[in-house]
What does this fold into?
Amino acid sequence: MTTTAFTHARVLTERGFETDLSVIVEDGHIVAVLPGPPPQGVDAIDLAGRYLVPGFIDTQVNGGGDVLFNDEPTVDGLRRIAGAHRKYGTTGMLPTLISDDVAVMCRAVAATREAIAQKVPGVLGLHLEGPYLNAARKGVHDPSKFHTPDAGELDLVASLGKDGVTLVTLAPERFDAATLQALAARGVVIAAGHTAATYEQLRDGFAHGITGVTHLFNAMTPMNSREPGAVGAALENPDAWCGLIVDGYHVHDATLRVAFAARPRGKMMLVTDAMPPVGGEREAFSLYGVEMICRDGQCTTADGTLAGSALDMASAVRNTVRRLGLPLDEACRMASQYPADFIGLGAELGRIAPGYRANLVALDDDLWVQGTWIAGEA
It folds into this structure.
C-alpha cells in the first residue's frame, strides 16, 4: 500500500485555512492530518504554498466536453463529461438529465449504474431534472415531455437505490404528500424546481420530503410583497439546501448577496448547470433539435432564453469570492462540503479530515486549478 503526503499547502480544515500540515493518504482515503512534515519514507507531493481544498461536488451537470447527457446516456458519455469537469476541480458530480422520454430516462439510469460499477472517476449518481415540472416555469425544457409519473415510473426514478445518489427536481404542486414521502423513504433526494408553487405549496412540500431547491430564483415563483412565492419559502426555511448558479447571468449579484444574508451558513451550494461547451471545443450545441449558442460565458436559445450555463465549478468559486465578496473558505465549502451534505455523502466527501475520500483540489493564488486528485489519484 502506497502512502502519500500532501505538504506545504494552505489546507482547508474545519477551522479554516491552516499551514504547516501534512495530509496523509492511503488506499484512496485520508488517514491523518498531521502538524509538521510527514513521517520519513512517505512519498510527498509538495504543493509549494498553494491552497488544498476538498474536491468540488456539482449536483447539476447537463454536459461537458462537447457531450450532452441527454444525447449520450452511456458510460462513455459519462466518462467524457466527468473528465471535462475534472480539470476545473470537480471530483464528484451528478450527471443531469434534462426532461426527456421515459426510454431515455431508463438508459440514463442504466448508464449511471454501470459507470459507478466501473468506478468511472467522479460519477456519484444521477440528477433527473424533470420531466415532472410545470410548463409555466419551463425554462428551456420541452413541455411536451412533462407528465405525471405512474407507480412504475416512480419505481424507475428510485431504481438506482444504494448503487448511487438519485436527485430528482420536480414541481411540488404536481405531487401529493404521500408520493413525495414515498420517494424520500426510498432514498431519493427531492428538490423543487421549474415550479409555479405558491409559498404555501412549497412549505407543504418541505414538510413531506423535499429538502432542496434547484437553482434558486430561476424558473420559480418570485418573492413579492404579499405573495412570498417559492423563493420566499426557500429563503425562510433554515433546513432547505439551495443551489445557486453564480455566473453573473442567472441571478444578479445583489440578489445573491441578499440571499446569503438571509440564510444560515451551510445551506447554500454552488452548482454549474453546465452544458456541453464546458471543457469542450465547440460553442454551439443542440438541445431537443434546437441550436443553442454559448457566447461570453452565457448559453441561450436564439430568443435569449437561458439554456443552462457555460460555467465550471472553479469559476463559480472565483465568482463567489470576487463578485459576491464571500471568504474563500466559505466559497470552497459551498462547492464541496455543503453539496456533499445535501446528497447524503457528507460523512465521506467534502472535507479534508481522517476517514474521508482523498478527493482534493490544489488552487493557486488566483484560484485557478493546479491539480486534482480522486481517491488520491491525479
Summary: The CA atoms of residues 4 and 225 lie 56 Å apart. The mean pLDDT is 97.
